[in-house]
Amino acid sequence: MPWKPFECRPLTRQIRLFFSGGHLQAWRNLDTLQDSTLETFRNDAYNPAVPVKLPKYAFQDTPAIAKWFLTSEDQQPISALNHNYLSTFGQAIVPIELTRQSPSSSKDDTTSTFTRSEAPLSFLLQWTKQASADSKDRLYVAQAPLSRLPMELQNDVPTPGLVLNAGKGDVYDANLWMGMSPTYTPLHRDPNPNLFVQLAGRKHVRLLKPETGQELFSRVQDALDRVASAKFRGEEMMQGEEKRLLEAEVWGANQSMRDGYEAVVEMGDSLFIPQGWWHSIKGVGEGVTCSVNWWFR
User: Fold this and answer.
1) Helix (H, G, I), strand (E, B), or coil: what is residue 167?
2) Cα–Cα distance measured from residue 139 to residue 294, given in angstroms and rounded to the nearest whole number
3) Looking at residues 169-176, what average pLDDT do you find?
4) How many other C-beta atoms lie within 10 A of the C-beta of residue 167?
5) Whole-number percent of the chain with pLDDT over 70
6) Which helix (H) or strand (E) holds 217?
7) What is the distance in angstroms between the CA of the first residue and the CA of the last residue of the chain?
């Protein structure tokens, strides 16, 4: 018999809850490593394959943070792109996702359309000048290989020593993710360990253990009467009924999974996501959100 989720409202704050092993639990915050030394990272995260958040200072000096973005001095800072710097590289070709809602669809994602193509970076730069959180057309540079960017931009996001030295030193891919909140990456798993660094804005990450995520993904596929792989960012995950079901399972009010973890990452924050751990990511708040990640072993 499946567990039945319910809601609890202590004081004035609503907390979403679910069952795990017979005990009532909320999404658990990821632990933060006590320091960012190679020894600590290897012993407490990489070797035991445990997802963790790294101390903020580990990546706050990444050159791209100061060079690519302009940040307000508000209590909750909002990031914008530094067009004067980035426009120099506007002819660089990057993969861009376009999600478009029809005027009559409102928030009904089942009627939105999704396409992926390659275009100059200037296409995104120009869009961000007039876009807002309510824009019907959403552009997102998703999984853009750093190796295809101009060398100056590559140098702004050097490969971390943790990536090069924690394991065998094999770097399978490094990618850029850039857009304006809200952004969305559906539930999936990576074939290699993942170091994820937030350069600007905020993202909310939810993670599930391999077996728990597989149960959830299989349940959605059964409901759709299909079989699919979740190792890649497939277009079917970004629109229609599959998107709606996956998003509802992870982010809705009526989850029925166990062993859930979450973290909110801001400028300079980073996460380690072990191989096989399922995760879904949302860009939240206002302004530009930008991340880089390295898949390595």
Assistant:
1) coil
2) 22
3) 97
4) 16
5) 83
6) helix 210-224
7) 39
